Every structure is written in C-alpha cells, then in structure tokens.
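Worked example (supplementary).
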Amino acid sequence: MFGKDFMDELLKPQQLYSHRTMKTVLTRLAHASIMRLNPASMDRLYELMVMAFKYQVLLCPRPKDLLLITYNHIDTIREFVKDTPVVGNKVDETHRKIIETYSSLPEGEFQLLRQTLLIFFQDMHIRVSLFLKNQLQNPNGRFALSTSGPVPYGMDVPGLIRTFDRKGREVRRSEFPTGGSYTSPIRKGCFELHGDRVIRLGMNMYTVNHPEETHTSKAHSVKTDDTPNLLAKEELNLLARLMGSMKAEDMPKTQTGFQINLFPTDQEEGEEAETSSGAEEPLFGVINIQAMQDEQAATQLAQIVGQFAEGEEQPENLSSSKGDDLLAMMDDL
Amino acid sequence: MTSYVEVVALSLWLQTTRRLTPDHLLPFQQTALPREDSSMYHKEKSIQVKNSASALYNNLGVLRIAPRHLTYFTVVHANVVNMVSASWDGLNYSHRQLQSKEPNVATSTSLIMQAAFCPLPSRDLLVVTSQKGIQMYESDGSIMVYWHALDTPETPTAQAVFARGISAVRDSYICVGVSSGAILVFDVPSKGSNITLSEALKEHKESITDMAPECSGSQECIADLVSADDGGNLCVWKSGEDFQLLNSIPGFDMSCPSVKLWKGTVVAGYGTGQIRLYEAVTGILHAEINAHARWIYSLDIAPFSGLLLSAAEDSLVRVWHLTMTPETNSVEVIHLHNECVTDTQICGAKFCDGDGYAFAVTGYDLSEIIRYTQS
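After joint prediction of all chains, the assembly is encoded as:
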C-alpha cells in the first residue's frame, strides 16, 4: 500500500473517482490480508469510511488544513508500524512526497480540491453511531456546524468594521453582533514531517471514548460465534495484528501496541473504522483501527495467525501484485 | 414612498448596533431602541430543487422577469444546473435541468463551476462555465445559443482547467474568466447566436474566481467591470472594443471568491472572512470588515438601496448597508441583520430584487433555495 508505484499512481493528477471505483479500490485494500468481509459488511464499512472522511473534509477549518488531517493519519500509521522500520521508511517516504507535491499549493487551489471532494460526498447522510453519540451528527444525518469557538488560524474574529480616510488612516471603528461566539485562533499546526498538528480532525476518534465503551467490546471480541458480526470483528483483530507486522518473516507475536475497539451495540454498525481515502489527493485507503484487546484474545489470535504465517507470500510481492491490479483497474477508467 | 420607508427602517436598525450614527443619514431622532435586529427579515417558504447544491462560489443565480411575474433561479449540482422558474404568487414552480456537455457529444460531461444570468439591454442570457468550456443559453434554459471550448489537455495536468467568473458588461459584452487567469470577452448581438470572441484579457496570473459589472445603472462611473482571482488580486476595467485596465488592486495571498462593483466602489469578500471596500479607480481602501469566521462564498448588492449581502461557510448570511458620500468620497458600512442557516455551509446568496426586499440562499448538500423577505 505504501509501495512507490502505488503512491506514484495515486499522486498523478486525475479526475475524481466514482463511488464504484473507490469502493473497488477499498475492497481490494481491505482484503489485502486474509481478512474477508461479506458484501453487506463491506458496504457498511465503506459507508462508515466515507462518512468519517466527509466529516473531516467538511469541518476542515481552512482548506490547507486538509494536509494537517492527512498528517494526523500518517502520524498514527507511523505509530502502528514503529516496530517495522522497513514499512516505517515507506511511510516517511510517502509523507515526504505529499509534502513535496502539496506544500506549495495556494489556499485557493486547496479550496478547489476540497470543493471537488465535497462533490464526492454530496447527498450522503448515513448516520454513524459514534458521531450521533458525540453530537457531531444530527439524527437527520447532517453534521453539526458550530458557530462558536476559535476561528481558523490566520483569520480574524468577526465583529469589527474599520473605516479609513483617503490617506489610509483609520477614522472609525465599530462593532456588530455576530450571532455566534468566536475566539482567537489557536496556534498554527506543523506541516513538516514531524510536529504538533494542533487540529484534532484525522486523529483517532475512538481514543476520546469512555473506558466503559471499550470494556463492552472486549467481552464480545473473544467469542467465536458464527454470527457474521462477531466473526468480522475477529477478522479485524487479525488484520490489526497483521498490519502491525507487515513482513512475513516477523512472527506476528510481537506486541504491536495498538488495539481494536468495536462497538457491538448496533447490529447494523458492524465494524467501525476511521479512514481517509482520496482520489485527487493521496489520502490512502488505510483502515485506521485502534482497539483494546484482552490478553487471552491476543494469545489465541496470535496462535491462529502463527498457523497462517508460513503460507504468506512476501509482502513486497503481495503489495506489488495488488498494486498492479489496482493500477490496471485504474488505467481502465 | 419605498425609499422613505427604507429610511425609517434603516434608522431603527442604526440604533441597534454599537457605533456612531452617521449624521447625514438620519433626518430625525429615534428614542425607542429595538433590542435585536433579528426581525428585519423573516423566512419564507423554501423552493425545493431537484438536486442539492454543490460547494462552489456564488452558487445561486437569480433573474427577475417583471413582465411575467416570474423569477428564475439556478443552482449548480456537480455536472448539472438546476433551474427553477417561480411565479411571484408562489403557486407555480417549474423545473429544468441543464447538463454541461459539448453540443453533439453524447457522453462527455464535466463538472460545472458556475451558472449565472447575464442581463443585457436587448436580451438576457444564462451562462454556464465548466471544466470543458462555456455554454450560453436563452435565459429560460430552453436553447443553447453558443458554445466555446476551452483548451483542455489530453491527460489531466496538475493545474486544473476550467472557466469561472461570469459577467454581463454594459450593452453587449459577456466576460468569462478562465483558470489560467485570462478573461474572455464575448460580443453579443441583440439577438441570434452570432456571438463572437472579441478578445482575451491577460492580466491575472491566478484562476479567476468572480467578476462583476458596475450595477448602479449610473452612466457616470468610469469603471465597468471588476475581476477577482485566487490570489485576491482585483482588476478594474473599462469596456469597449478594447477593454482597458484602469487599476490593479493587489491581494494578500488569500482567494477572493466573490466581488461586486457599485457606484465606483469594489466590494470584495475573501477566504479570510473579511470584506473590503475599495475605491475602484484608485484602489484606496475605504473600509474593512471582519465579517465571517470562515470563507466567504457569496456577495450581492441591491443597487437601488445599497444593501449588501454576504454569506459564508460559517452558516451565516449578513445584511449590511452601504452609504456613499460623494462630497467626501467616503463610504460608510453598517451592519443590519444576521440569518443563521443551521448546520449549513452557505454557497450562494442573492437579492431577488433591486431594493433588497427579498433574498435567497443556497447551501452545500441542501436541496432547497431558502428565501427571506423583509418584515
């Protein structure tokens, strides 16, 4: 996924993908490991990913902050793969490429990019329980837009009218009621390889949850029921483990340090993931999964995964063949 | 009669904001102070549209057809223009959709950047700009009278190619901006489809965002057209067989998505949420308003009353009043009214008449045109 060819292909100027194409790409990515999702689960996963992505793009404070959101994602990925330097290097390389491609883009062009992405998301109002619970989304599926809080970096707090004379001296100052309660911007986010991004969009949505939520999910994740819901959760756990150690040589017994957090409350929710993927900009189809696992499940799954490990191809071959598929498919458009 | 009532209304609202009362405006004193200015306009029944509005600058076109008691509205959705013809009595609505395609090419559609009415003395045209080219229709959208193809490269380039920024100018010109920064000037005959490309003005270095004609109706104004680009740069033009650049007002590296020209004053809205008022010909800054907390997407002026409408991604539409004092060559801005369209990033806002008695609003992902009328 972070292979050079794939990234180069993603970074080529191109038109916006259709939903069909995007779904195909993401389905391939989701199945790039041994994980298998039935069509209904994949549909649901796709919807959740798109809604999370829509949320991030819509609420992005300034168009250029799309980069900061991307960098939040990359930072998290970097954390996931920190025990695998080879992959870590690829992530860094991708990050550098993004910086190189997009850093000098003016704000107006970022806004055009954002407007084009918003066309992709148009008319999608699928309700996501996490968003509903945190009141980020209304029951009608539309996202809540606040009229209070800090203004984006580089903007002034509304409310002031200044009048000047012909020599440029300010002659009058007056205020008007804004209908909101705005405050000064917080500090600027860092656009470099490493640094404080400041904005929270693009960060793991699940880390801000209450511990009770994760405890409920823990109880469910161990069961090997054959209800599709729970099986899919196990598969995701597996994927998480595998993603934590990309090379086949590394036995996936190494502590990956990340967790899967699943909400079993809604039958229709199934797995939940937060990801971002893009067409015109290289937000990859990465499933950003973070969850808590208990030790028993970890050992159990590690054993299961150990059985599969010998049968796996080299990850480079795997990713390049998948990449070729995707490239071929993309070329066909 | 109308203007007297307006003066009364305005004087009432002047008292509600915390600033000095312009002496030259009030012929009498007010004692009662209304607390809120929230009742200047009230919401009317919305007009339903076939598709939701896309997030594009200035995404609402309005044309008032007085003899037929109709108003036309246009809202862009991806590669389609939704047109609604609404009768003034509110009883009849008819819908039409226009696609952005080259004539005689069945499959090609491209994303539309803008649709706007161009009222000329002899005829009204509807201009639609897209990634492929420029289409001009009769104002009811019934017939396409002209197609101009842009030079689109074979494979997509990093710099997008599109047309954006539409303005009728004086008696017979329609100007359209291009992503390269060029402005195409079309000569429009009083009828028929013999529209010709007269010249290409190459002054802007960045993509054109919006353009506007002098809308006061006064023949005394020297400047006929203002154009704005993605860098916030403004150019002021005089029309003619050869358009003449009168002035260039530099931006500050921030896009100017919407611009208006009224009585020789440029009113520009920026991605910083600021509105700035400049004297067009000299570039002198009259006023600066920290108006919105997000990108401004649309400005409009009601030429008979001097009302200004601003709308932004922050969900707010604001109504202001502009006063020109020719003796001192100064411009005064006061704030009159706010409307919050909850949970909506507004992408189009326009007055429905020259007095500003009513205005209409569109928002991203909304399938309706919201209307407000003065109370």
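Two points are worth noting when inspecting this output. Chain B touches chain A through 62 residues (CB under 8 Å). The helical segments of chain B are 2-14.
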